[in-house]
Amino acid sequence: MSGLEMAQERMRSAGVAERAIDVFTAFYRQLGEGATGLIREEEVSPLEDIEHASALQVSEADCRAAADVTAVIKLNGGLGTSMGLDRAKTLLPVRTGHNFLDVIAGQVMHVRAEWGVRVPVIFMNSFRTREDSLASLAKHDGLAVEGLPLDFLQNQEPKLSADDLAPVEWPADPTLEWCPPGHGDLYTALEVSGVLATLIEQGYRYATVSNADNLGAAPDPQMMGWFAATGAPYAAEVCRRTPADVKGGHLVVRNSDGRLVLRETAQTAPEDAAAASDLLRHRYFHTNNLWFDLHALNDLLRERHGVLGLPLIRNAKTVDPSDPSSTKVVQIESAMGAAVEVFDGATAIEVDRSRFLPVKTTNDLLLLRSDVYGVGDDHRVRAQIAAPPLIDLDRRFFTTIADFDARIPTPPSLVDATALTVRGDWRFGRDVAVRGDVTLEDGGTPQSVAPGARLGDG
To answer: Is the pTM of this model over 0.85?
Structure first.
């Protein structure tokens, strides 16, 4: 039995939908043929100036009409393993008594009340995030819209041995033999779950999609009105790149057909790295906020028999992410933003940085919990200063949530800071304030910032 056949059999035994197996099969065959998914610099051109969301002029009536037929979809499959979590990252508190899911629920319900629309929110969960997330959301009465589920599950696939591309065996923890197919699985999961068909049957026309750990991507009727007015089947939100964004995916224009294409870091050849990270050449990064026409997606899936043909991402890992000495594996992945190239007439819009506030590390979490950001009555998260400070916490002592919370149980005031660098094992007392550019040096032993301390200028 070939590696592909073994993988297909394992997926069927686990109850994975045939459409999802078909998508995996198409990617596996590309992998077996030596496909790398690389997008060469010589094959693309930079994305030139595009419309900025701040210039949008959409009537209130058009905004309301679009919002009433737009569904909000949040990707909530991440466990936050890089921060030492074994549950949904979105269960982490961002304000006293409120986690990510609470803020999202508040944003959606505010839009409904303010605009008189039925806009639903639907989460794409993984098997590991579903139970806890739904339990957390249960306290929000009326969040689920009648006739629609509150979530659907992303698919799963086997990790493949790097040696022979057969499904890896890991008896020590068989759950580690499986992985999600990347967030490009969104489209397949929407179809096989029946959610796509249900949304269309209920009269919805559009979807706005973002990561659940990005609280900046609040549902926005102005943006909903804009997308409906474009008539485009698909749109990507992009931001101007900064030095902090050189590793993220960015949009380019494919020379052969003029289509917009997403190029991820894993799809960049080493010899193209300098050009790809040139902020003057490639000015826009993809925020992973996107829009699509539900009917257009449904038609395309039918036309292609469920296989959109997204570019392959070959992700080299170890079977146990926490053990670099464990068996080397390949994970077949795709990016949901890559669908920009499969829709005729896809477009892009530049948005403010305020729509991109992802939490990937405890550096990000510290900023979000601090007074740098405020949460309004509309539950939107907004920066209170023009330029949030740069945070660099010592990875030896602040990488995991357990270590972070033990050392910074109460975030310091950062609203007057430009940068905070922590080297060594420091613990922060209550009511600490940071001003200007502050570096705490490693003293070799655990050290403390006293309660009420004022660090830096002034």
So the answer is: yes
414-456 confidence digits (pLDDT tens): 999 999 999 999 999 999 999 999 999 999 999 999 999 999 9
Query: How far is the C-alpha of 395 from the C-alpha of 265, rounded, in Å?
Result: 23
User: What six digits make up the tokens of 160?
Assistant: 């493949």
Question: What pLDDT is recorded for position 190?
Answer: 98
- Looking at residue 458, its pLDDT comes to 58
Mean local confidence (pLDDT), 250-273: 91
CB contact at 8 A, 120 and 145: yes
Q: What is the model's pLDDT at position 36?
A: 72
Instruction: Tell me the CATH architecture of domain 362-456.
Output: 3 Solenoid (2.160)
DSSP letter (8 states) at residue 412:
P
- Backbone angle region of 413, left / alpha / beta, with phi > 0 → left and psi within -120 to 50 → alpha: beta
Question: Which CATH superfamily, name and number, covers 3-355?
Answer: Spore Coat Polysaccharide Biosynthesis Protein SpsA; Chain A (3.90.550.10)
C-alpha–C-alpha distance, residues 88 and 133, integer Å: 7
Residues annotated as catalytic (active site), given as ranges: 360
**Would strands 284-293 and 206-211 be described as parallel, antiparallel, or unpaired?**
antiparallel
Please calculate the CA angle 118-111-199 and round it to the nearest 5 degrees.
30
- How far apart (Å, rounded) are the C-alpha atoms in residues 262 and 13? 34
Domain ranges of the chain: 3-355, 362-456
Mean pLDDT of 166-189: 94
For residue 125, the cross-strand partners are: 76, 153
